[in-house]
């Protein structure tokens, strides 16, 4: 119990990291697999959802294609976190990140915005990341 804090901690670890994490801590393989099976069916990892906004615009003749490319780049990430882009009304787009860790979600949100803005700026456009919208 010292390793996980309590039995629920062991279940959370098993659900998140798998049976091998329990085996590595000295739990018998058969028990570790049984605990992991129960944990995967009953433990839901916590999720955070955060949003930010990008204002992007370009006056390039292929502007629509460039904006689409920028928004697709924002959604493409190399992590398990889910990144979605929604139109609020051109030129503003909402980027939403779903993750199990708030700090990781914040970093991924910034990276997604940076990817979109870079593509727009490379086409002589401009972009801005807004963490929250201001009240008018």
Overview of the structural elements:
It is a single chain. With 136 residues, this protein is an alpha+beta fold. The protein folds into two domains: 7-42, no CATH class; 48-130, Alpha-Beta Plaits (2-Layer Sandwich). Helices cover 48% and strands 23% of the residues. It contains five helices and four strands, in the order αααβαββαβ. It has a four-stranded antiparallel sheet, with helices on one face. β2 (82-89) and β3 form a beta hairpin. The protein is elongated and about 65 Å long. The protein starts with 6 loop residues before the first helix and ends in a 6-residue tail after the last strand. The mean pLDDT is 90.
Topology:
Elements: H1 7-17, H2 19-24, H3 29-42, E1 48-57, H4 63-75, E2 82-89, E3 92-99, H5 102-122, E4 126-130
What's this, in brief?
This protein has 136 residues and is an alpha+beta fold. The chain has helices at residues 7-17, 19-24, 29-42, 63-75, 102-122, and strands at 48-57, 82-89, 92-99, 126-130. It folds into two domains: 7-42, no CATH class; 48-130, EIF_2_alpha (Alpha-Beta Plaits).
């Amino acid at each position: 119990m010292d390793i996980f804090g309590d039995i629920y901690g062991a279940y959370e670890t098993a659900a998140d990291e798998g049976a091998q994490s329990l085996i590595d801590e000295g739990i018998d393989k058969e028990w570790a697999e049984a605990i992991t099976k129960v944990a995967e069916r009953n433990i839901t990892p916590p999720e955070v959802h955060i949003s930010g906004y990008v204002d992007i615009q370009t006056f390039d003749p292929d502007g629509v294609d460039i904006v689409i490319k920028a928004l697709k780049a924002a959604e493409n990430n190399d992590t398990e976190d889910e990144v979605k882009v929604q139109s609020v009304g051109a030129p503003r787009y909402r980027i939403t990140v779903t993750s199990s860790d708030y700090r990781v979600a914040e970093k991924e949100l910034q990276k997604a915005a940076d990817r979109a803005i870079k593509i727009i700026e490379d086409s002589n456009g401009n972009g801005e990341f807004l963490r929250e919208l201001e009240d008018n």
